[in-house]
Specification:
24 helices; alpha+beta; 763 residues; disordered N terminus; OB fold (Dihydrolipoamide Acetyltransferase, E2P)
């Protein structure tokens, strides 16, 4: 048998006609290359798998806080045991390291879930009932938290609250008092105040302040009705709480001395208050106009001692000690200068943490800085994603609830973005040896300016989704404002504040601290000038509504992925991080009903028209901010009330557009004519014990007990007309959403009032 072999070369062979088989082969090649690229990127993540430990732990804690009802304590333990079994099996059967790493992350997620559950149970404390009203409070002032120069917030550890028993008495009470009440931490006080449980969300989906109060063990909030009187000769609180009170008293005295010395040096200037804020976090001496300028220009982080302040103070101490040791040859030759400087920086972190009041942002910043200095002491890289992941894991283990707080989200995303930038951005350092010194100086100045602009831009982009979601305002000129203000704060103000605070705390002679105080006041004036400039430029800020929760989740996960992933796929996370910016917002509600039913508002053309503009103003402002609406200032005495006709006993909607809202808020029985007018509305709020007649069937009648159980409500438009959406629907029945102690339920099995009504008539 003869075998004929063709001698036709490959180049002369006819190519097959292009068809679907060739098309499919081309796409199979693309898919093969894509899969190979994904496999290569995934294999490159092996050394970085440890960076995802705090992410897994925080994801477990976030799942716990996202539940609508309280889970049993054994659920997290059972899941953790299952994950442990899987990890052990992976080790015994020698599964691939990346598989065992993923199983370990699952174990950390279960641990985060269990830690959040345990933290919730340990933080349990009594909450006052909703109808407690006006009571007399006796107790010791723990701290003074001053939101403005016009009023103070006293945090009191009570010893007597009206007729409440010891078992039902809250651990902490926060009341608002006038500035003239000269109470200081450690004083035994007596005051008559009207109390309420910590307020929940001002509208469905808004931020839950009651959750923060729960973990701070604050069981009541209110306003003082009488001046605060100081009682002498009473027993003082001891133990850890007594140490906290003593430390807060020292901080308060230090803030008083700082402001008094600044007034003697420079006179009455708003910058004096900013120096006190940067040193002790007390805002009592900062004018409201200056505070508004800082918030409007994107410099609100100056008001909370956090990463910038902690890094500036500890960095100043670290580099100062290094220079002093290097300037002394006998010490430089015999002692490890860098380690001694790191130990000094660590001590400065602890002192500044105590001086700042150890609030949550300061605690997080202190842990991050401490991990960096400990890395220096143990011959590790101080600024790295590994150090940041350890700091984040420590913070989450100690305070799992911070995973749902804006401060944690913003601070760690901003820091992580800057550290990730440092990994990929390596500026060239090589220069010719014969370069003139002037050109070298200009070149270094150019690099410094480019670096500051880049850092400010990256940090601003990393925090923008959270600023838009939680604070509903975007500072257009935030990048240049932060560039100038952060430079002043880091290089001028914070070192001077550190020197002045140490001098004041050690009671040094005034002449020794006067230069530092002068520099601190001058630099603070520069920061306020920057804030005022950029806050008052045309189009300085844009107001936006909060996006639905999935948008924030996508943005958060996208930013974390962009920071921790190694490879080109990290840009996918960067794009996902902008989800809050482009996510569709729900339509504006037709009306709003306040958390206690004492106030309501109609929304027309994105403007909020309040029924009682001076009643529960904070809740009204929070609702408008969450929805990105315009809230006009309260009308003057001679100005008309607008859409609502408010009298001494009632308010009623004068228009005929649905839903019409009316409110009767006095104990006086209404006349027949007035009652007939009120019953012609769509929603009737009876915040006083008045019985509606049997023939009053048109309106949906809501009483304070309804709002106490279901919270605030929004009237949203539907195809049939309108319906009510309650905040309890999204909030769920959790320990911080109930007026009782841990383990009680808010009546979630009882359906919320949800009568609907046509758009042109009543319900």
């Amino acid at each position: 048998m003869k075998v004929v072999v063709s001698s036709t070369p490959e180049a002369t062979r006819p190519t097959p006609a292009p068809g679907r088989w060739a098309f499919g082969a081309r796409w199979r090649g693309v898919a093969h290359r894509l899969c190979a690229g994904v496999a290569a990127e995934w294999a490159a993540q092996g050394p970085r798998l440890a960076l995802w430990r705090p992410v897994a732990f925080g994801a477990g804690a976030a799942c716990y806080f996202g539940l609508k009802s309280e889970p049993a304590i054994w659920i997290g333990a059972a899941a953790a045991m299952g994950a442990i079994g899987a990890c052990v099996a992976g080790r015994l059967w020698r599964w691939p390291s990346i598989v065992t790493g993923v199983l370990f992350l699952a174990l950390l997620a279960c641990a985060g879930f269990g830690a959040a559950n345990l933290r919730t149970r340990l933080a349990s404390a009594p909450v006052v009932p909703g109808d407690i009203g006006v009571v007399t409070i006796e107790g010791e002032v723990v701290d003074i938290r001053s939101p403005s120069s016009e009023r103070w917030r006293l945090l009191i550890a009570p010893s007597r609250v009206g007729d409440l028993s010891t078992a039902d008495m809250p651990a902490r009470i926060r009341i608002v008092s006038a500035v003239g009440d000269r109470a200081a931490p450690g004083d035994r006080v007596r005051v008559t105040a009207i109390l309420n449980p910590p307020p929940g969300p001002s509208s469905p989906g808004a931020y839950d302040f009651a959750r923060d109060a729960y973990f701070e063990r604050i069981g009541a909030v209110g306003a003082a009705l009488t001046p605060v009187t100081i009682e002498a000769g009473a027993d003082r609180i001891g133990g850890i709480e007594g140490m906290e009170i003593a430390l807060n008293g020292w901080r308060w005295e230090l803030a008083l001395r700082l402001t008094e010395d600044l007034q003697q040096l420079r006179g009455e200037w708003p910058s004096n208050g900013l120096v006190a804020v940067l040193a002790t976090s007390h805002e009592a001496w900062l004018p409201k106009e200056s505070e508004d300028d800082l918030r409007g220009s994107g410099l609100a982080h100056m008001l909370a001692i956090a990463g910038l302040h902690m890094a500036a103070v500890s960095g100043f101490v670290f580099w100062g000690l290094r220079v002093l040791i290097a300037a002394c040859p006998p010490l430089a030759l015999r002692l490890p200068g860098k380690k001694l400087a790191a130990a000094g920086g660590l001590l400065a972190v602890l002192v500044y943490l105590a001086l700042s009041g150890a609030h949550p942002p300061a605690r997080r910043a202190a842990i991050t800085a401490s991990v960096a200095f400990m890395a220096i002491l143990t011959h590790r890289q101080a600024v790295s994603l590994h150090a940041l992941s350890i700091a984040a894991l420590i913070v989450l283990v100690l305070e799992p609830e911070c995973v749902v707080q804006p401060g944690f989200q913003m601070s760690f995303c901003a820091t992580g973005a800057l550290v990730a930038l440092a990994e990929v951005w390596r500026p060239e350092r090589g220069r010719a040896l014969n370069t003139p010194w002037l050109l070298t100086l200009l070149d270094r100045a150019r690099e410094a300016v480019i670096g500051l602009i880049t850092v400010s831009t990256v940090a601003g982009l990393a925090t923008a989704p959270f600023s838009m979601q939680h604070f509903n305002r975007t500072a257009i000129y935030g990048a240049p404002a932060n560039l100038l203000a952060d430079l002043l704060a880091s290089a001028v103000v914070m070192p001077a504040v550190a020197i002045a605070a140490m001098g004041e705390a050690c009671s040094l002679h005034h002449l020794l601290i006067a230069p530092a105080l002068w520099v601190a006041g001058l630099g603070s004036a520069g920061i306020l000038a920057v804030g005022h400039l950029f806050a008052n430029l045309p189009g300085a800020g844009l107001t936006n509504a909060s996006a639905p929760f999935p948008a924030l989740l996508v943005s958060f996960c996208g930013l974390i992925f962009a920071i921790l992933w190694h490879g080109r796929f990290r840009w996918v996370g960067a794009v996902a991080g902008l989800a809050v910016l482009g996510w569709p917002r729900p339509p504006d509600p037709l009306a709003w009903l306040g958390p206690d039913g004492a106030n309501a508002a109609i929304v027309e053309r994105r403007t909020v028209q309040a029924m009682r503009p001076d009643r529960r103003r904070f809740a009204l402002e929070s609702f408008a901010q969450h929805r990105g609406l315009i809230l006009p200032p309260p009308p003057g005495e001679d100005e008309p009330d607008g859409r609502f006709d408010c009298r001494r006993d009632y308010c009623i909607d004068q228009s005929h557009a649905a839903p019409r809202i009316a409110n009767w808020f006095t104990r006086r029985k209404p006349s027949a004519a007035t009652l007939k007018m009120l019953c012609a509305s769509d929603i009737l709020l009876l915040t006083a014990p008045v019985n509606a007649p049997a023939d009053c069937t048109r309106p949906l009648i809501l009483r304070p007990a309804t709002f106490q159980q279901f919270g605030a409500a929004e009237v949203v438009k539907t195809h049939e007309g309108w319906r009510l959406e309650w905040s309890s629907t999204q909030r769920g029945a959790r320990p911080w959403s109930t007026p009782a102690r841990f383990g009680a339920r808010s009546g979630g099995d009882v359906p919320a009032p949800s009568r609907t009504g046509p758009s042109d008539s009543g319900g």
